[in-house]
Model the fold of this input.
Amino acid sequence: MSNNQTSSSEPKKKKRRRGRRRLVWIMVQLIFLLGLMGAAMAGGIVTGYVAALVKDEPVRNKAELEEKIFTNYLTGFAYYNDGSLIGQLRAEEGDRRLVKKADVSPYLINAIIATEDKGYYQHKGIAVQSTLRATYQELTNQPVVTGGSTITQQLVKNTILTHEVSHARKAREIFNALRIEQMFSKDEILEAYMNEIYLGKNANGSNIYGVQAAAKGVFGKEVKELTLSEASYMAGMIQNPGAYSPFGNESYERGKERQKMVLDRMMENGYITQSQYDTALAVDLKAQLAKPTQQAYREVPFLMMEIEERAARQLVDAELKEKGRDKSTIGRNEYRLLVEEKRRDILRRGYKVYTTFDKNVHNIMQSVASDASNFGKNRTYTIKRSNGKTEKIEDALEEVGAMMIHNRTGAILGMIGGRDFTVEQTNHATAPRQPGSAMKPLAAYAPAFELGLLQPASPLDDSPVLLSDGQKGSHLPKNWNNKWQGIMSTREALRQSWNIPAIKAYLKVGIPTALEYVKKTGITTLVDADNYAQTGVIGGLTYGTTVEEMTNAYATFANNGSFVDAYLIERIEDSRGQVIYHHQTQPVQVYSEQTAYLITDMMRTVVNSGTGTHIRKFVPRKVDVAGKTGTTNSSNDLWFVGYTPEVSMGVWVGFDEPYPMPDADKYVPMIVWGKVMKEVIEAHPNLSPPDATFKKPEGIVSASVDSKSGKLPSELSKEAGHVISDIFNRKFVPSEVDDSHQKARVITYEGERYLAKEGTPDDFVTEGIFYRSPDPLPTKEIIQASNSKVAVRPPDWEQRLPDAEDPRTEVAGAPSSPTGFVANRTGTQAVLTWQSAKEPDLVGYRIYRANALHGFTHIGTVKDPAVLTLTDANSQGDSAYYVTAVDLTGVESQPSIIASVGSSSTTWELPQSPTDNPIDGGTVPGTDPGELPDPILGQPNTGNPIDSPSTLPPSAPQSVTIADTGNGWKLQWRANKASEQVIAYNVYFSPDPSSGYLLLGTVSTTTFTHAAGVDNPNYYITAVNSYGESPHSNNVTGRLP
Done:
C-alpha cells in the first residue's frame, strides 16, 4: 500500500518543486538586478542563498492559501427574537466583521490603494521598484524611508507569517505573495486585506479588525456609508492605528496630518478633485465619532454566557446526529472538548446567533432582579465544609434564579441568572438546587393520576409513617409544623403542601416509576441513588434540579400533558448568511390531557386559596394561574413555579452558599414571580390574555365520593357527613361503594382506642359512626422514639374505627373508692382532683355535685381511668362533690369522701348507695324532682361548661359573615355549642351555585380566608362531630364594591 501511495504522490511533489524553482528564479532575478551583491558573489551563490531562505516554507495549494487568508477571527452577534441586537459575542482578538468589496465605500478603497499600494492593479504581487529601493536603503545602511510591501505582501504578513523582521521572513513574504497573485483575483485579495487589517480600538476600547468593524466602531456607520473625509482618515490609520486614533486629542491631531497626506496622494493619483480635497480636510471628525455603548457582556452577562454555551452544544448535537453518533455513548470529556471547539468557532467565525429571548420580557426580569427592595437584607453567616472546616460567608446576597418559557413552543423568553454578576457568576437559573415541595406535582400526584391510583378527591392520610433508613433503621418524616392533619383529599394535600400525603402518594406510585415520569418531563439531574430516596418527592434528591428544568416540567401540564423541551437558540447563521442550525420542536406526550388538567386545576387551588395566594397581590384574579410553592428543610431553598395558559415561569431564591432563609423572606419567590408576570402581562397581553383559561378536555366529569375511602358514598358516609365532590378523569371514577364506615361503641384506655365490650356503660363509651384507617398507625412509643417533638396522633384519630376490642378483663366485685379527693374553686370554676382506684378493669369515674338547692347529682363522666381531674365551670355558691370509680361491667364503687367549696357550714350527706345515683338525668334522694340535673362534662380540664354530650350530628353553624380583605374573602361564624362536640368545620365554595358546591377546606377554628379567582364567590359552612355533618349554614356571597 505504501508503494502505491509513494508513486501516486510523486507527480505532485515534482510539480511543487517546479513551482518552487520558478518562484525562486524570479526572486533571484530581482535580487540579481540590484547588482549590489558585488562581483565576488556569483550567481550560484545568490541562487543558493535565496533557496536557503525559502527552503522550509511550504508550497501551499489554493485551498490551503484560501483557508489562511480568508478565514479570520470574525465577530459574531446575538439577537433577540424580534431580530434586534443583544450584542456582539466575545472575540479573541476583538471586533471583526466580514464585508464584501462591493459594500465598501469607493472613497475608502481609493484611499487605501493611493496610500498603501498605488500600483496594486498593475503588479503581480510585488512592486519591483519599491523592493529595490528598500533593499538598497537597507544594504547601504541608509534610513529606510519607504516600505516595499504591496497590499498582497501585507496580507501575507498578517495572515500567513509572523511580524518577524529578517531577510528570511521577507523572502517568504515575497514567495507567498507571488503564489497568491497566481491563484486569486485582485478584487479577492483586496477584499481579504480589508477584512484583515488591524485598525486600533473602537469607542468602547475594544480592538477592531477590518474596515467594517472600524467604520462601526469609529464612526458608528456602515463602511459603505463613509464620506471622503472619514474614509481618508481611516486609510491613514492603517500604518499606525494607535498613533492616529481619533479618540485622543494628540492622536487625533496626528491623524489629521496623516489624513492630509492620504488626500494628497488621492489627488495626485486622480481619485479626487481639489474641491473634494478641501472639503474633506475641513471636516471636524471629532463631532462624528461613535459614542461608547453598553457592551452586552457587561449589561447582560448571564445571557451572553448562556448563548455561547447553548449555541455550542446545539452545533455539537446537530453534528453528532448528522454523523449518526449517539450522544449518550460519548464520554463526558470528549463531549466537553467538542463543545469547546464549537464555542471557539462561535466566537471567531462571525456567526449570527438568533435566540428566543424576548427583549421586553428579559428587561422586565432584569429590572425586578436588580431592585433590592424585592429581597431580604444581605447576611453574614458561617458554614461547615465537607472537610469539617468552617468558613465565614460575609455580606451574602439573597440570590435569585428565574426563567420564563413559552408553553406551546418551549421557547425561553427571559431569564434571571442572578442579582449581580460581578458578585457571583453562578447562573442560578441553570445551577441545580433542591426543589423542595415543588417536586410534589411532578413526582407524586401527576404519575398517580395518570396511573389511576389517585384523583383530586382521593383520600390521603396525613398521619405518621415510618420509612426505612439504611443507617438509622427508620426515619419519621414530618410536616413543617410537627403535626399531622389526618385524612384529607389529594387536592387539600397539595393546596396546603403537606409532606406526608405526598410521600405516601410517591410510594404508592413506586419511586422508579415516579422518577421515570419526572425524567420524561425534562429533569436530567436524577441519578440512580434517587431511586432509593423515599423523601425525593419533597426535595431530598442527590443533586436537586434546576429552575429551567422545573419550569419546563411544569409547562408540560400547561401544554395539555405534552412535553416540549425548552430551547434558547432559534437558529445560527455563518459569516456568509448560511443557516447552519435551526431548532426543530419535537413534542412528546407524557401525560393524558385529563391528567394535565386535573393537576392544573389542583394548582389553581394552591394559588387561589393555598400556599400560593401571595401571587394574587400582583396578578389579578381574572388571569388564570396555576402553580406550586417549594421549601426545603431549614428553608435553604425557596421556590415558586407557576404558569398561565401561555407561559410558565419558575423562581428560586436562596443564598449561593446554602443557608436558612429568614421566615420574613418566605414570600420572596412569589414577589418576584408576581411582579414579573404583572409587568409582562401589561407589556405583552398576547402572552397571557385576560380571557385565556385552561381548557377542560373531554373526559373530565364531576362526581361525589366518600371522603375517607374515595369510594362511592354509602348511607353511613352520608350520615357521617363524609361526602365530597370534585372533578375526575372519567376513566377513574370509582365504581365500588364505601365499606370503611361502621357504627360502633368505642372506649379509650391508656391512650389507645378500643371497641367497647358489650357490658361497658354507655356514658363511658363513644357511640357513633367510625371509619377504618387506610393503613395501621405506628404506636406512640415508636413515633416518640423516632421524633420526640411530633404529635403521636392525627387530629381525626378519635373518628377512626379501632381494630381491637378492649383488652381488659372483668375483676369480681365492686371497685375501690377513689382516694385523696380535693376541690378548689377559682371564680366560678371548681377544679376537682383525686387519686386512682387500683383495679385494672376500671373504665373511668363519675362525678357528683350538690348545692343548697338540691342533693347530689351526677354532673360528669371521665372516660379515661388515667385522667384524675375535672373542672366544673358552673360551680356557684356552696357546693359539694364526690367521685366514684366504675368498672367494665358498670359496677360503681362507693363514693369518695366529700370535698366542698364555698363559705357555708352545710353538712353534706352521701346517698345510701351508688345505685341511688342515676346517670340518665334523673335526681337523687333529697333533690327537687322538678329541677333538672346539670349536664355531663365532655372533656376534663378544658375550662368549658359541663354540658351533656350529643349523640347526634351538630346543628348548622350560625351568623356566617363574609368580608373582602383585598387579597381574598374572610369568612367568620359563631361556634356551635360545646355540647355538640364539634371537631371541625367544612367550608364549601362555588363560583356558581347552580353548578353545585365543592369542599374547599376543613378547619378547627371559626374563620377561613380564601383567595377566590372569581368576582362573586359563594360559600356555606357545615359543622362536623363524631356523629356526622350538620345541615349547611346560610349561603353567603362575596361582592366587590
Residues 2-34 form the longest helix (33 residues).
